[in-house]
Specification:
16 strands; 3 helices
């Protein structure tokens, strides 16, 4: 028996093992590559809870309600203390047009059944690569710019007598600072978070709902913020503190806040949240 014939079975087994290992290692390359721009902590869009009603109580101004109406899974109407807004959508189910109703005395209407016949001040939403690019009554009043991770880093306004906003982020995609300028002056706002969900963020991610509200703390924390801010500083001076209670899914059901005014006085209020079932 020749030397190589004696070891032929061993050689064959070894070669088969090498081939198997090579195939196993190569198979891993078929798996989807890691997206360096993705956020592993991002919730699946379909799983976001959607707001149905917000009740805001300010100890100066009394009570105000914000109601949302949905149809076929889309946000179609919003009644903000008597200002009724209708939303229209593009083929990607992102808001393409928002128009306000000109009827009066809308505070106590049934938002789901109410129909408006006259509108004013429509705002158009234009998208690029699935992200909101321009917005406003004149189509390009505000231009949006993003970083490579998809974070909104600036809202540049072309309208007269208006402000532009510039954002910085932490590694988790939370806004660290917000610089607001009108071209000649401005200020910087910074934030501390509690790690829980901003109830408006799902509307932004799912529908392109771009709003800051007319009540605290969401006049300072708009729909693009992922989390709720517990402290807000303006030029390093504490401006607002907020405390939240949450449901089992991490969505706020109530918020109490205290705002520190320039004259040394304070303003307090409370916000209640309910969600679409």
């Amino acid at each position: 028996m020749k030397f190589y014939e004696k070891f032929k079975p061993t050689i064959i087994v070894t070669l088969l093992a090498i081939i198997f290992l090579g195939y196993s290692c190569g198979k891993d390359s078929d798996d989807p590559p890691n997206d360096e721009n993705s956020n592993d902590n991002e919730e699946i869009i379909e799983n976001y809870k959607l707001l149905k009603k917000i009740t805001y109580t300010d100890f100066w101004w009394g009570e105000m309600n914000l109601d949302f109406s949905y149809s076929n899974g889309l946000l179609v109407k919003e009644n903000n203390g008597g200002e009724l807004v209708y939303y229209e959508y593009n083929i990607d189910n992102k808001i393409s047009l928002a128009k306000e109703c000109s009827d009066q005395n809308l505070t106590d209407i049934n938002i789901d059944s109410y129909d408006c016949s006259a509108f004013y001040q429509p705002s158009t939403y234009i998208y690029e690569n699935g992200k909101l690019k321009t917005f406003g009554p004149d189509v390009k009043d505000i231009t949006f710019n993003y970083d490579t991770k998809g974070n909104l880093i600036s809202e540049v306004s072309t309208a007269s007598m208006s402000e532009s906003i510039y954002y910085t982020y932490d590694n988790e995609g939370n806004i660290l600072s917000m610089e607001i300028t009108d071209g000649s002056s401005g200020f910087t706002t910074t934030f501390e978070y509690d790690g829980k969900k901003n109830p408006f963020y799902g509307l932004w991610k799912k529908f392109g709902y771009f709003e800051d509200q007319g009540f605290e703390p969401y006049d300072l924390v708009s729909s693009i913020f992922k989390q709720n801010a517990t402290k807000i500083f303006k030029n390093n001076k504490l401006e607002l503190e907020a405390n939240y209670t949450y449901d089992s899914d991490g969505y706020p059901i109530s918020c109490g806040f205290i705002e520190y005014l320039n004259d040394g006085t304070t303003r307090e209020g409370n916000v209640l949240f309910t969600y679409l079932e």
